[in-house]
């Protein structure tokens, strides 16, 4: 089956699973979304949604955030991974938005990527969800599933993004990237997942891939298994 044919079938299945795709990060403005996505690196969306209400009560605009001390920001986000660095980046990006963009979040991928702590994925999420510009943000779930499904060769995130853009219609990108994330979280985890019983992997992944992952999981489980008393 060609990749484009496979993507068409996957798209139909994902639409059945997730006809609606709410953005997982709570926000009310492009600035709040930008900060929330920045915070989500090495942190769960659930944790981000727990800390942002307190942060946004203190400041929910670039001008207000720029007036906060870094320690004030850190106090709200300290349970997030890499919190000290993120607090500094949030303060500095708020200052840059005020100084260089009139206190607004720019609708430009390049301008967003120039902000501290904002990588390509973060910028792509903001462009897609705040400004409706077709992008295909690739996170760990998407990278993993694209390889499992044979839609990409599992080399780099950049290659995965290009491969997925090539097989999914442009008008679906902003929705399907969320559908894949939801599917990965709920139905297709990274470890101890029998691909042969998965609604999509069962037909989309190769027999070789299924066998490789089964051997890997068995090997990991064996290493973690406690040794019997008396064994060296």
Automatic annotation (TrEMBL):
<keyword id="KW-0479">Metal-binding</keyword>
<keyword id="KW-0238">DNA-binding</keyword>
<protein>
    <recommendedName>
        <fullName>Endonuclease III</fullName>
        <ecNumber>4.2.99.18</ecNumber>
    </recommendedName>
</protein>
<dbReference type="Pfam" id="PF00730">
    <property type="entry name" value="HhH-GPD"/>
</dbReference>
<feature type="domain" description="HhH-GPD">
    <location>
        <begin position="39"/>
        <end position="186"/>
    </location>
</feature>
<comment type="similarity">
    <text>Belongs to the Nth/MutY family.</text>
</comment>
<dbReference type="InterPro" id="IPR011257">
    <property type="entry name" value="DNA_glycosylase"/>
</dbReference>
<keyword id="KW-0456">Lyase</keyword>
<keyword id="KW-0411">Iron-sulfur</keyword>
<keyword id="KW-0326">Glycosidase</keyword>
<feature type="compositionally biased region" description="Basic and acidic residues">
    <location>
        <begin position="210"/>
        <end position="220"/>
    </location>
</feature>
<keyword id="KW-0234">DNA repair</keyword>
<keyword id="KW-0378">Hydrolase</keyword>
<dbReference type="GO" id="GO:0003677">
    <property type="term" value="F:DNA binding"/>
</dbReference>
<comment type="function">
    <text>DNA repair enzyme that has both DNA N-glycosylase activity and AP-lyase activity. The DNA N-glycosylase activity releases various damaged pyrimidines from DNA by cleaving the N-glycosidic bond, leaving an AP (apurinic/apyrimidinic) site. The AP-lyase activity cleaves the phosphodiester bond 3' to the AP site by a beta-elimination, leaving a 3'-terminal unsaturated sugar and a product with a terminal 5'-phosphate.</text>
</comment>
<dbReference type="InterPro" id="IPR023170">
    <property type="entry name" value="HhH_base_excis_C"/>
</dbReference>
<dbReference type="InterPro" id="IPR004036">
    <property type="entry name" value="Endonuclease-III-like_CS2"/>
</dbReference>
<dbReference type="GO" id="GO:0140078">
    <property type="term" value="F:class I DNA-(apurinic or apyrimidinic site) endonuclease activity"/>
</dbReference>
<dbReference type="InterPro" id="IPR000445">
    <property type="entry name" value="HhH_motif"/>
</dbReference>
<keyword id="KW-0227">DNA damage</keyword>
<dbReference type="GO" id="GO:0046872">
    <property type="term" value="F:metal ion binding"/>
</dbReference>
<keyword id="KW-0255">Endonuclease</keyword>
<keyword id="KW-0004">4Fe-4S</keyword>
<dbReference type="InterPro" id="IPR005759">
    <property type="entry name" value="Nth"/>
</dbReference>
<dbReference type="GO" id="GO:0051539">
    <property type="term" value="F:4 iron, 4 sulfur cluster binding"/>
</dbReference>
<dbReference type="GO" id="GO:0006285">
    <property type="term" value="P:base-excision repair, AP site formation"/>
</dbReference>
<dbReference type="InterPro" id="IPR003265">
    <property type="entry name" value="HhH-GPD_domain"/>
</dbReference>
<dbReference type="GO" id="GO:0019104">
    <property type="term" value="F:DNA N-glycosylase activity"/>
</dbReference>
<feature type="region of interest" description="Disordered">
    <location>
        <begin position="207"/>
        <end position="232"/>
    </location>
</feature>
<keyword id="KW-0540">Nuclease</keyword>
<dbReference type="Pfam" id="PF00633">
    <property type="entry name" value="HHH"/>
</dbReference>
<keyword id="KW-0408">Iron</keyword>
